[in-house]
């Protein structure tokens, strides 16, 4: 693109501007008055294009985050070197966060869901704030307003689906909610469409490229935060153990890798994160696998952690009561020959979930860190150290959960691929919202199917009529292959 435009003759003008080469189809010495209207519009577009193109190379500097370390900690650690000072700050804050996490676990699954939603909103805020700081000098119209509006729309879509799936009995009692659930996807689409139209109406000629950059920025941020947090909650509904073991494995890997790297780290692992070392990576791997195996054993003993989280309308709360599945029942496994010689025993008893925990821990320690490397590359691109300064010594919330989101996706895919079967509770809730005629048809079809399978006995219909006959019903218990079953038997009795 020529920096200076053709204004007149071939030499410099009064203002010292050099003339650009003539356009194709123009005379070399053409008068400036013959310039066409289209050329003027092109000049304007080019100047606005120059403004827009600043985003490609001239990214504004983001001001460094403030140090929010409590003054009491600063005074207590003032005599230490920066390396050990950071060690103690990270350690104290880590123990504090773990303690708060245990408290929320004790408060129940609903509080865990609120925690996930709060983290999602904060992570979204941190990423969007970076975008706003980068491009704040351009004063993009409606940028932050539309970003939060799209966050609301996407959350409404995902969690509306969750309410429809897991709160069907509650929705059935509330007429207003029935309308929202029945037309949920249409309402979600209408809300998003309204935001899309607002974005188009907000386009300003000199900010076209920037506005589309930020439109994409917002949607990628939504994909990273909202979608992944939705998967976290889906995992939680499968049982709290599917939430706790993966999350705690990532936390363990982060802590173990930091400790091993701090004391033994010598070999750099990846250029994106110069402080990451092979010693920390390998130490974190073995520590995480051992931790996950032990944590799976301890949690598998308790119904509170292994039962699917279900909403009970009669008590108006979430419950975790069930008969534990085979995954959480002790089984005996034969040991391979080399372990038999070492352990001097033929078999070992453990929970099947412990085997799955090895897969989860392996992913958390080998693949999970790449979520952190991805975040490191993002921060380097914008010349920032942390996403925010929410947690002293740790950075922002997104700095702590960059690996967790990748882990949540893996756990969800793992459950749906290798673990999950038909969910009787979910099927029952869907049946309860059907019309009575539909429920009756399903009942008759199911009854016929069970009789054909031999699970139920056909109802006796004696051909007896008249006033001399009456009937008595007896509830009998039968032991079938599938377990004990109650059957209602009807017998005719002749009146004396």
UniProtKB/TrEMBL annotation:
Broad EC category: transferase
Cell location: Membrane
Membrane topology: Multi-pass membrane protein
Protein origin, superkingdom: Eukaryota
Predominant location category: membrane
Annotated region described as Disordered, given as residue ranges: 1-67
InterPro entries noted in UniProt: PC_trans, PC_Trfase_euk
Swiss-Prot/TrEMBL catalytic activity: 1,2-di-(5Z,8Z,11Z,14Z)-eicosatetraenoyl-sn-glycero-3-phosphate + CTP + H(+) = 1,2-di-(5Z,8Z,11Z,14Z-eicosatetraenoyl)-sn-glycero-3-cytidine-5'-diphosphate + diphosphate; 1-octadecanoyl-2-(5Z,8Z,11Z,14Z-eicosatetraenoyl)-sn-glycero-3-phosphate + CTP + H(+) = 1-octadecanoyl-2-(5Z,8Z,11Z,14Z-eicosatetraenoyl)-sn-glycero-3-cytidine-5'-diphosphate + diphosphate; 1-octadecanoyl-2-(4Z,7Z,10Z,13Z,16Z,19Z-docosahexaenoyl)-sn-glycero-3-phosphate + CTP + H(+) = 1-octadecanoyl-2-(4Z,7Z,10Z,13Z,16Z,19Z-docosahexaenoyl)-sn-glycero-3-cytidine-5'-diphosphate + diphosphate; a 1,2-diacyl-sn-glycero-3-phosphate + CTP + H(+) = a CDP-1,2-diacyl-sn-glycerol + diphosphate
Cellular component GO terms held in the UniProt record: endoplasmic reticulum membrane
Keyword annotations from UniProtKB, A to Z: Lipid biosynthesis, Lipid metabolism, Membrane, Nucleotidyltransferase, Phospholipid biosynthesis, Phospholipid metabolism, Transferase, Transmembrane, Transmembrane helix
Transmembrane annotation, as ranges: 142-159, 179-201, 213-233, 239-265, 277-299, 353-375
A GO biological-process term: phospholipid biosynthetic process
Comp. bias intervals (Basic and acidic residues): 23-57
Pfam families according to UniProt: CTP_transf_1 (PF01148)
Pathway field: Lipid metabolism; Phospholipid metabolism; CDP-diacylglycerol biosynthesis; CDP-diacylglycerol from sn-glycerol 3-phosphate: step 3/3
Protein's recorded name: Phosphatidate cytidylyltransferase
Any GO MF annotation of the entry: phosphatidate cytidylyltransferase activity
Family, similarity comment: Belongs to the CDS family.
EC number: 2.7.7.41
């Amino acid at each position: 693109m020529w920096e200076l435009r053709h204004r007149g003759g071939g030499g410099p003008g009064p203002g010292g501007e050099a003339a650009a080469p003539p356009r194709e189809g123009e005379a070399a010495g053409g008068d400036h008055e013959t310039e066409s209207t289209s050329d003027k519009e092109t000049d304007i577009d080019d100047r606005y294009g120059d403004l827009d193109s600043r985003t490609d190379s001239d990214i504004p500097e983001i001001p460094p985050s403030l140090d929010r370390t409590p003054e009491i900690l600063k005074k207590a650690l003032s005599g230490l070197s920066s390396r050990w000072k950071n060690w103690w700050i990270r350690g104290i804050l880590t123990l504090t966060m773990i303690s708060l996490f245990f408290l929320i676990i004790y408060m129940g699954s609903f509080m865990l869901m609120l925690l996930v939603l709060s983290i999602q909103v904060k992570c979204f805020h941190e990423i969007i704030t970076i975008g706003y700081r980068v491009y704040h000098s351009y004063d993009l119209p409606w940028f932050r307003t539309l970003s939060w509006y799209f966050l609301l729309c996407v959350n409404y879509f995902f969690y509306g689906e969750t309410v429809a799936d897991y709160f069907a009995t509650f929705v059935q009692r509330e007429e207003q909610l029935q309308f929202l659930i029945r037309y949920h996807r249409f309402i979600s689409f209408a809300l998003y469409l309204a935001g899309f139209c607002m974005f188009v109406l907000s386009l300003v000629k000199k900010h076209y490229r920037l506005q589309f950059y930020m439109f994409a920025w917002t949607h990628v941020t939504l994909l990273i935060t909202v979608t992944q947090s939705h998967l976290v909650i889906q995992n939680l509904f499968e049982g709290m153990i599917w939430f706790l073991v993966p999350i705690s494995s990532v936390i363990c890997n982060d802590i173990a890798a930091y400790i091993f790297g701090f004391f033994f780290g010598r070999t750099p692992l990846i250029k994106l994160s110069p402080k990451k070392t092979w010693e920390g990576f390998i130490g974190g791997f073995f520590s995480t696998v051992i931790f996950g195996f032990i944590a799976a054993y301890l949690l598998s003993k308790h119904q509170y952690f292994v039962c699917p989280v279900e909403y009970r309308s009669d008590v108006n709360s979430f419950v975790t009561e069930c008969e534990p599945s085979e995954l959480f029942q002790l089984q005996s496994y034969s040991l391979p020959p080399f372990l038999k010689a070492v352990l001097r025993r033929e078999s070992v008893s453990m929970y099947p979930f412990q085997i799955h925990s090895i897969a989860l821990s392996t992913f958390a320690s080998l693949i999970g860190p790449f979520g952190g490397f991805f975040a490191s590359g993002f921060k380097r691109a914008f010349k920032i150290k942390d996403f925010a300064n929410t947690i002293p010594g740790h950075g922002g919330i997104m700095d702590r959960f960059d690996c967790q989101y990748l882990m949540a996706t893996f756990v969800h895919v793992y459950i749906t691929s290798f673990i999950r079967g038909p969910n009787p509770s979910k099927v029952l809730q869907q049946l309860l919202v059907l019309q009575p005629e539909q429920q009756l048809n399903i009942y008759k079809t199911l009854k016929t199917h069970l009789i054909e399978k031999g699970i139920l006995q056909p109802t006796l219909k004696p051909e007896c009529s008249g006033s001399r006959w009456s009937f008595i019903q007896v509830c009998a218990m039968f032991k079938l292959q599938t377990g004990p079953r109650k059957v209602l038997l009807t017998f005719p009795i002749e009146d004396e």
